[in-house]
Specification:
15 helices, 343 residues, two-stranded antiparallel sheet, TIM Barrel, alpha/beta, 8-stranded parallel β-barrel, globular, binds ligand FNR
Length: 343
């Protein structure tokens, strides 16, 4: 097995072993209950927009895996089938390995095969060239392309990158050369408003905040290291704060909340903070591997049903209305936003 394939399997194993932290900041957010919502569950409309893409609901399965053989192929097939069955969007894991080695392409292509008309996002790192971006999009007929930023993960990864120069320029080139929307995402360390403003300026369609508080790639990579690097284990901007930071730039850019999202309330709070959709990765992967395909599909259906109940209790008929419900921010999240002058 190649080193890259081995690494992917280790990421999955360590994700399962470490589980999800509950540090995403959503416990600091309270949505204000409405006793007179004047709304019925049947009237709730979950459809939403990310850039120009219309999604039937704001839940998406975020980028995880691909390449590396039979195990990842099976996982990707199951995740894509579940996305198809529940009509939600899904992202593939980084496609760079399949660009470098064509024999790895089937584990990505399977996702389009079992989810012909669904919304599927491609995924590459910020080292990608515009040509590679085009190949990744073509490979799975992607509806959008995610570019991930993962500086801390690379630094903790023994074999990771050490040079992070000219990243914004490369993303700008990709934005100019591809004909699908580009989504820039973090992988669990969050995003601040200064970065968001730079991405908005170069024409990125959406930011997936990839906030701190769920899957922790510093801890995951540490499990693969000889000399442990603990400095980054508690490093990052929580998901709740990241959403508020990115929304505060008021740019023409959609926001996807992600990082430790595990249930409909986390999803509702992401949207109430201003996101248009929310991505779930580690929680659904763990559920599928430990409990199987049917449990995965039921969980997605339950999250969507629960979301309609929450929206009803808040009097929010649409995602747009949910984005504007009143909320109270407590604790560290309140403190952070106050210090940064974000209201
Ligand atoms: C990831 N993630 C990820 N992200 C990305 O952009 N490209 C990738 O290839 C991967 N690979 C990957 C593998 C595994 C096993 C996991 C668990 C995650 C990161 C993922 O998309 C997400 O940003 C983070 O995991 C944070 O979200 P959760 O897991 O807390 O919901």
């Amino acid at each position: 097995m190649s080193k890259r394939a081995q690494r992917k399997l280790e990421h999955i194993q360590h994700t399962l072993a470490l589980g999800q932290q509950r540090l995403n900041g959503f416990d600091d957010i309270t949505l204000i209950h409405q006793s007179l919502p004047n709304l019925s569950v049947a009237k709730i409309d979950l459809s939403t927009k990310v850039g120009e893409l219309i999604l039937s609901s704001p839940l998406l399965i975020n980028a995880m895996t691909g390449g590396g053989g039979i195990d990842t192929m099976k996982i990707n097939e199951a995740l894509a089938r579940a996305a198809h069955e529940t009509n939600i969007a899904i992202a593939v894991g980084s496609q760079m390995s399949a660009i470098k080695d064509k024999s790895e392409q089937p584990s990505y292509k399977i996702m389009r095969k079992v989810n012909k008309d669904g919304i599927i996002f491609g995924n590459l790192g910020s080292e990608a060239t515009p040509e590679q971006a085009k190949i990744a999009i073509e490979m799975i007929e992607a509806n959008a392309l995610q570019i991930h930023l993962n500086v801390v993960q690379e630094l903790v990864m023994p074999e990771g990158d050490r040079d992070f120069t000219n990243v914004l320029k490369r993303i700008e080139k990709i934005v100019q050369h591809v004909d699908v929307p580009v989504i820039v995402k973090e992988v669990g360390f969050g995003m601040n408003r200064e970065v968001a403003a730079k991405l908005s300026e170069i024409g990125v369609a959406a930011i997936d905040v990839g906030g701190f508080g769920g899957t922790n790639f510093s801890k995951i990579e540490n499990l693969r290291r000889q000399r442990i690097l603990h400095n980054f284990d508690h490093w990052g901007i929580s998901t709740a704060v990241s959403i508020a930071e990115v929304i505060s730039i008021k740019g023409n850019i959609s926001v996807i909340g992600s990082g430790g999202i595990q249930n409909a309330l986390d999803l509702a709070k992401s949207i109430a903070l201003g996101a248009s959709a929310a991505g779930v990765a580690g929680f659904l992967l763990k559920l599928y591997i430990e409990k199987g395909y049917d449990a995965l599909v039921h969980e997605i259906i339950n999250i969507l049903e629960d979301l309609t109940y929450i929206m009803t209790a808040l009097g929010a008929k649409t995602v747009d209305e949910l984005q504007r419900v009143p909320l109270i921010i407590f604790g560290n999240t309140h403190h952070w936003l106050n210090e940064r002058g974000i209201d």
